Amino acid sequence: MEFIYDPHYFLTSSPNIEENKKLREPQKNAYSKAFEHFVIDNKTSHAIIVLPTGVGKTGLMGLLPYGISKGRVLIITPQLVIKDNVVGSLDPEYPANFWLKYDVFTRIQELPNLIEYEGKETKDEWLELTNIVVVNVQKLQERLANSLMNRLPSNFFDLIIIDEAHHSTALTWVEVLRHFNNAKVIKLTGTPYRTDKKKIFGDITYEYKLSAAMAHGYVKSLEKFFYIPDKLYLTLDDDSLKQYTVEQILQMGIRDQDWVSRTVAYSPECSEKVIVESVKLLENKLSNQNTVPHKIIAVACSIKHAEQIKELYEKHGYKSAIIHSRLSKDDKEKALSDIENHRVNVVINVAMLGEGYDHPYLSIAAIFRPFRSQLPYAQFIGRILRALPDKEVTRVSDSIAQIICHKELNLDDLWEYYKKEIQESETIKYLASLNLDNEEDDSYVDKKGKPKDTSYGIATEEGIGKLIGDTYLTTKIIEQRKREEEEELEKLKAIQQILNIPIEEARKVIAQSKGISSTIRRPDLFIKRKRTGIDSRIKEDIVPSLLDQFSLDKESTDLSSCRIFKGKYFWIPINYKNNGAFLAVYINTVLKDMIGAKRQDWVTSDWDLAEKKLDEIEEYLIKVLEEFTGQA
Fold first, then answer.
1. Full-model pTM
2. Does the entry feature the keyword ATP-binding, yes or no (predicted)?
3. Is the dihedral of CA 273, 279, 285, 287 positive or negative?
């Protein structure tokens, strides 16, 4: 078969993007903003797109070159798991590739040429004939003879797309951008901050918040459970005669909180208690013959620690697979195959299944290691957020991910981010109905011949512990799940009374009666995108953020006494019912007043101006609300 290379392919193709109902709004909005950045505004700065896990980042990579790239495209991934995922999704030879599956194109002849760069195995001829090259960053190191930088001229690529761009400060990434220095650069990430907590270099052209993704069902909702022991005792230096409570350890200054959390992490006794509770959560998801193959994903401190966790899960009858960087290729492939084909119930991960691993049936995150920063914690939690395909969801609980950990792992602060996002997601759901115009480390393992590691001690428990859920979470989906559970309990009691049988027998009767659950289930466009973009920013970003920042209840009406409603906008609290609506309508009305015309009369330049004016309105509201809430 002869391959034909069209150097102008991305400029002459006609992909179905703007009116494509199969694409998600954040994908279309992100594409539109990148197009605006490079083509309409003719900017040369790096474009940063922030999308949470599960929203459709790989698909977005498949859209971004069209109309933007004047030549070849290089997609750089930070690790092999992500590279394999990108290649698999965008491979034109794969029947379910992104472009055909989502109706971006309808004929295979319309698809781009794509290759995976594999060093010396990749021939120069293949590079010349391709439109898209996907490469793992390790293959780009300048010291390697077969690095792309040593084989290709600096003008070979017109567009570079960097996935998981918070890694992009590493030397290899910098060398790549220095070599292909005339290429446009788009950076995709789940966070606008690098691994060293500094901002990523470039302009944020589009950011879609996790709260919006939850509100629109692009990712699962989320709840967290702490296991709290009845009594917990710690010992130092294997001296079992002296036991201390956590409070005594900290008050006496014997050890710090990090030592406590490491000790709990390495305690088989503490781990087993969390394992038992995680298994209960899984059994609840799988009850009544649920056909969805939900799984637990666990994270351990080290390979040795992971093996201990595996033994404990299998002791309780749950088949487990361990994934870590030291597995042979064959063992890794077998483990991944066992996961994909549902031959295991538990996946134990040691700094391996972080970014890029896509398995929507991972629904419970069991944490057995301390996290000290947001990024690795967020990457791990991201593994359970990916939503199930709609047609596979059989009950509300299928769309709720759960986190479980021991209270003394001290992860409360890292959970605060998710609490905030969940609260904002509820505000977004409410505002959606508002019409404004009438989204390994192995370092803890004892090495033979080395002194005993004293960075942790021994933890033992007494009594019966308890599981505490975060009562802050009151999303509609979780409330609906509670109603379903209450209804199920009423049915159980009725069956139990009628048949005079134990409650477990009643469960079996209901399950049998249900049987196996069956699975349910151009210019004008540019202006349209601008319009929806402004609406989304008001409803999904500015208002939820303000309500959260100033601890305002969206259902309350206390903002009616705020100074902004004392003058010409006095009518807003009279006509709308709560704080969320007050702010959204106020912002939209002020915006129209600043432009000096109704929305339907705005021209293209007015929409551009409106985006800038939104920044001014938001800054003003922050000052007003600081005064109103006494935070000034």
1. 0.74
2. yes
3. negative
